[in-house]
Design goal:
549 residues, alpha+beta, 4 domains, four-stranded mixed beta sheet, 22 helices, 11 strands, globular
Length: 549
């Protein structure tokens, strides 16, 4: 068997395995995942999120990661699914020490004892992608070595190919999949997961965070040891301290929890609003409070990036909220890319106006960002909008840091920390220096266009003279009308066929009388009558059945 045949066979076997697991948990949770708009009350409906989580856990690494990413997408899934998917545990049985040592030797190109003076055989943690071992370098530095599991890249690539095929098929037959651009979402997920598989990228992420906080003595980003790092092995300085959610240990350590809540959230807000490069998984397990009070950050596989254009749109969003301008808010939402389909703009505007009136005038100390975002998510689900991946990561990060702050200090309000950063973001986006820089870029573009315009115009004229000019149209707005006309035409054709069938049968019965007709004629007539009756009933059903939007 050649390699191509083997891959096809493996691909088919894995597809069967996925289908078998989904069938064993029932397809109902998939069919209804995106269609729910209210609270379900039946036992079966309440079990759907549970079966989805169990199915993802059974399918392994790729699907566990998919569930973890979906658990952050409140714009796509109802709350009951999000709660269940957050229970997904990214843990796995540890790989045998011999395999881990072989992987390290193969990647670093030398015996493990030459790189590390000590290498702990028992892992600190074992996840679905890799596992971490404590070690000590020959200069005495304590490090953590992350090693990717053998075969995980091949398995993930295979699963991602299958997911893309499933998404393409679902988009053709499932309104929810097409409405939310399921193929695009799978592509985003693929990029996110593949970036987590590459430890070199994670190392560069750590160094970028270290550069951004180089002057802050209270932030400790672990050092990357590149001599012992490859795409499959990552060696980082070990961070020791108390987890930020271990309140008892923090109190025993003498940590001021109110100050810590303020400072930890400001660290993340600086990443978002000033650096445009933020840690997208700030759960408590990634924050360690060191004995001298510094905050140690770990796990840089998932990061978010906000480019200058997105920051500008966020600034416009804040200005529109401040002025209660619902029309401008809708415009900014569309500019942020929350939909690729036509929407009922008037309905979206009414929902946004109701949202603004609900929260307008509330003192900052009483405003809970998580509650506000949950209402925004409800509007997005109602109108089938979905966030681009970077904004989904941003809002998830905001919700997580508010929860982290409240856990440390029950009186914590994120808005008190958020307001200064948002004000600086708006001022920075609309500062004279930025306008001058934008004007300079626009002047260069205009000059370039002026130089190239005669050439473009000459090409257009030449195409017109030669009869080669073509104008393309995409009448997407006419699709519902065209579909309705097609259905009407189909009904007319079906009615004509039914009438012709009945008429032909009547003529045949009255004119054509072969030998033995008296014996079998009733059967032919009955068969024709039944067929005509079925055609008529089907035609009536297609006309009278309730319309589903």
């Amino acid at each position: 068997m050649n390699l191509i045949s083997w891959r096809k066979s493996f691909h088919l076997n894995r597809s069967r395995q996925i289908a078998g697991v989904l069938l064993s948990h029932g397809w109902d949770f998939l069919r209804n995942t995106g269609e729910q708009t209210g609270t379900t009350t039946t036992v079966a409906a309440n079990a759907r999120p549970l079966h989805l989580r169990l199915a993802l856990e059974e399918l392994g690494t790729t699907f566990i990661k998919l569930g973890q990413i979906l658990s952050t997408r409140a714009d796509l899934l109802p709350p009951e699914y999000l709660v269940e998917l957050t229970k997904l545990q990214d843990s796995a049985p540890p790989v045998a020490l011999e395999e881990i040592q072989q992987a390290v030797v193969a990647e670093l190109g030398q015996p493990i004892e030459k790189v590390f003076a000590q290498f702990e055989p028992v892992p600190l943690a074992a996840a679905s992608i890799g596992q971490a071992h404590a070690a000590i370098l020959w200069d005495g530095t304590e490090v953590v070595v992350k090693i990717r599991r053998p075969g995980v890249v091949e398995q993930v690539n295979e699963d991602l190919e299958i997911l893309k095929e499933l998404a393409a098929t679902a988009s053709r037959h499932w309104k929810f999949a097409d409405r939310y651009d399921l193929t695009g979402l799978v592509e985003e997920f693929s990029q996110t997961l593949r970036s987590e598989l590459d430890y070199i990228r994670e190392g560069h992420n750590a160094e970028k965070f270290a550069a951004n906080f180089a002057g802050d003595p209270f932030i400790h980003i672990p050092r990357v040891f590149w001599a012992a790092t490859t795409s499959r092995v990552l060696t980082l300085e070990r961070i020791r301290g108390v987890k930020i959610n271990d309140l008892k240990a923090l109190d025993e350590q003498g940590t001021d929890r109110r100050w810590l809540a303020y400072y930890a959230t400001n660290v993340v807000l600086k990443m978002v609003c000033e650096d445009g490069f933020f840690h997208a998984d700030p759960h408590p397990g990634n924050f360690f409070i060191e004995p001298h009070g510094a905050i140690g950050l770990i796990d840089f596989g998932m990061v978010g990036v906000l480019d200058e254009q997105t920051q500008g749109l966020l600034a416009e969003l804040l200005i529109a909220i401040n002025h209660q301008n619902a029309d401008r808010l809708v415009d900014v939402f569309l500019d942020l890319g929350v939909t690729r389909k036509r929407i009922d703009r008037a309905s979206v505007r009414r929902d946004i106006e109701r949202l603004l009136s609900t929260y307008w005038g509330l003192p900052l100390g009483e405003l809970k960002v998580t509650a506000l975002l949950n209402d925004v998510y409800s509007i997005m689900r109602r109108h089938h909008l979905h966030l681009p991946s970077n904004l989904a990561l941003l809002l998830k990060t905001v919700i997580m840091i508010e929860g982290l702050g409240v856990n440390l200090d029950p009186d914590f309000r994120l808005t008190n920390s958020l307001t200064p950063y948002t004000e600086r973001l708006v001022l920075r986006q609309y500062s004279p220096f930025r306008w001058m820089r934008s004007l300079g870029r626009a002047s260069l573009d205009l000059a370039k266009l002026g130089v190239e315009m005669p050439q473009h115009f000459r090409r257009i004229v030449t195409a017109v003279e030669n009869g080669n000019l073509q104008i393309g149209m995409r009448p997407e707005g006419f699709d519902p009308v065209i579909d309705r006309l097609e259905r009407i035409a189909n009904r007319i054709v079906l009615g004509v066929i039914a009438a012709a069938f009945i008429n032909g049968l009547a003529v045949l019965v009255s004119v054509y009388r072969p030998p033995g007709w008296e014996r079998w004629g009733w059967a032919v007539f009955a068969f024709g009558f039944v067929c005509a009756l079925l055609l008529g009933v089907y035609l009536a059903w297609t006309i009278l059945r309730p319309k589903h939007t």
